[in-house]
């Protein structure tokens, strides 16, 4: 029996070349079977994530545009509403002035009519009062004189 003492960690002999060729064949096979499909899957995933990110960015831009458009429309509608409100308020004021002037003229007409009626009634009352006062004066004089007055 012979004791072989080997001090070196790697001994260069035929097995080293066989192991090296085996390792290279293994690397070729593992690259074909595992790394290439894995890299392709990771690249597809990266592309998918990038397309999702791009879609999100595009959607955010579209949302911002829609919000800006809505803001412009809202301002335009508010401006239109304020204009319409001012117009309606002016029309209301004009109508109120017309109604007020019409009622004032109607009041003036009614006042004139009432004054004429009162004046006519006063004239009528004066006529009756004159006639009654003359008759009453005659009666009082007849009573005081105790005789009948002839007219």
Write structural notes for this entry:
There is one protein chain. The chain has 1 helix and no strands. It is rod-shaped, with a radius of gyration of 61 Å. The protein is an all-alpha fold.
Backbone shape: rod-shaped
Structural class: mainly alpha
What is the percentage of strand-forming residues?
under 5%
The span between the termini is 196 Å
Uncertain segments: none
Helix segment tally? 1
In helices, the fraction of residues equals over 70%
From the alpha-carbon coordinates, what is the Rg to the nearest angstrom?
Answer: 61 Å
Largest sheet: none
DSSP strand count? 0
Short synopsis of the structure:
With 151 residues, this protein is mainly α.
Compile the SSE list and pairings.
Layout: H1 14-145
Task: Tag the structure with descriptive keywords.
151 residues; 87% helix
């Amino acid at each position: 029996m012979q004791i072989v003492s080997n001090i070196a960690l790697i001994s260069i002999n035929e097995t080293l070349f066989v192991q090296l060729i085996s390792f290279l064949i293994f690397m070729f096979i593992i690259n074909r079977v595992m790394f290439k499909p894995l890299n392709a899957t990771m690249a597809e995933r990266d592309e998918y994530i990038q397309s999702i990110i791009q879609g999100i960015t595009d959607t955010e831009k579209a949302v911002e545009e829609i919000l800006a458009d809505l803001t412009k429309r809202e301002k335009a509608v508010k401006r239109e509403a304020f204009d319409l409100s001012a117009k309606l308020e002016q029309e209301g004021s004009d109508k109120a002035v017309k109604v007020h002037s019409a009622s004032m003229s109607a009041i003036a007409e009614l006042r004139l009519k009432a004054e004429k009626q009162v004046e006519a009634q006063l004239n009528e009352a004066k006529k009756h009062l004159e006639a009654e006062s003359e008759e009453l004066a005659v009666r009082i004089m007849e009573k005081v004189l105790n005789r009948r007055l002839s007219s």
